[in-house]
Design a protein that fits this description.
The protein has seven helices and 16 strands. The strands form three sheets. A six-stranded antiparallel β-sheet has the order 4-3-6-1-2-5. The chain binds FE2/S2 (inorganic) cluster. FE2/S2 (inorganic) cluster binds next to loops.
Length: 343
């Protein structure tokens, strides 16, 4: 196999390069127009990285600095990008990059330990300096756009994608402010990295739990509102932000199911049929029976839970779920009363 270059790109396969050159040459000899077969190079964005540093950033929060085993140059990224991390257990998790995009040799991510979660954060906290993890990306599902005015709203560990956005807004000379919320000051990571003067720290123990209206109060028309944090916070901001502002947000938890109808899911290979109630996803119901079923974002964008559909139709609730032969079981639901999956 041809090894990838430093950016993880595969070199051209000599056979297909030769075919492409020969075909293009023949087309030219024949005097045909449009002689080019575009050669699309496959990009392998999977790589092993080494944990170079682990730092405690707040209560239950550590940051991990990752680098290539040879300390080589890593693919570039922009504020809002995340890495998919494949843990030794096989779990796959997404973490926003929260370092400096101009640092091309290390990535920084941060993880809050959730003892009652699905196990990924506990496993991440068990990684020590020198450990190796496999990652994919960076990918950007939360793009940062150049605007004149920003309101950033971060809830706890939701500061991670916001941190490089704040730095970028500062570099742009934009008019920005940040509202940073959490239970207590001790639970908020990276307080020491935030520029002073434009940041409002709002903790539940000092100020009470804010609602959406509190967070977007006084936001001017034309403001780009970037929000990342727990689902109730995002839902509150969505409900309260006026039409004059544009809202960009990233969730750390699945959105509530809207207009869900109950259906049955038949798992053909497992020989089981399960009832999916209106307020649960097919993924959650299936995981009760098959805990090892693969998933990651639970929001319909990573594609990890894509499963072949053997009979029935799905309602395609995510723009990333257009394929009739399969469905994203974390978000999409059966259109009829039953769907059969290859599980
Ligand atoms: S788990 Fe990410 S798309 Fe379903």
């Amino acid at each position: 196999m041809i090894p990838p270059d430093l950016r993880g790109r595969r070199k051209r396969d000599p056979f297909w390069v030769a075919v492409s050159v020969a075909f293009n040459g023949m087309q030219r000899v024949r005097g045909l127009r449009a002689p080019v077969i575009p050669y699309v190079e496959p990009v392998d964005r999977t790589r092993d990285l080494v944990v170079l540093e682990v730092r405690r950033e707040a209560e239950d929060v550590v940051s991990l600095r990752l680098g290539a085993p040879d300390r080589g140059v890593l693919p570039g990224w922009q504020p809002g990008c995340h890495l998919d991390v494949f843990l030794p257990s096989g779990r796959r998790r997404q973490y926003s990059l929260c370092g400096d995009p101009s640092d091309r040799r290390t990535y920084r991510i941060a993880v809050r330990r959730l003892p009652d979660g699905a196990g990924g954060s506990v496993e991440m906290h068990g990684l020590a300096k020198g450990a190796t993890v496999t990652v994919q990306g960076p990918r950007n599902a939360f793009p940062f756009l150049a605007r004149d005015r920003y309101l950033f709203i971060a809830g706890g560990i939701g500061i991670t994608p916001i941190l490089p956005m704040v730095a970028a807004a500062e570099r742009l000379g934009a008019d920005w402010r940040l509202i940073y919320t959490g239970r207590t000051r001790a639970s908020l990571p990276f307080l020491d990295e935030l520029p002073s003067g434009r940041v409002l720290i709002r903790t539940d123990d000092e100020h009470g739990v804010p609602d959406g209206a509190d967070l977007v109060e006084g936001v001017a028309d034309g403001t780009a509102v970037y929000c990342c944090g727990p689902a109730p916070m995002i839902d509150g901001v969505r409900a309260s932000v006026g039409e004059g502002a544009t809202l960009h947000y990233e969730r750390f938890a699945p959105a509530p199911i809207v207009d869900g109808r109950p259906f049955e899911v038949e798992l053909r290979r497992s020989g089981r049929t399960l009832a999916v109630p209106a307020d649960r996803s097919a993924l959650d119901v299936i995981r009760d029976e098959l805990p090892a079923v693969a998933y990651s974002c639970r929001q319909g964008f990573c594609g990890t839970c894509r499963t072949a559909v053997l009979a029935g139709e799905a309602d395609r609730r995510s723009p990333g779920d257009p394929d009739g032969g399969s469905m994203l079981i974390c978000v999409s639901r059966a259109t009829g009363g039953r769907i059969t999956l290859d599980l």
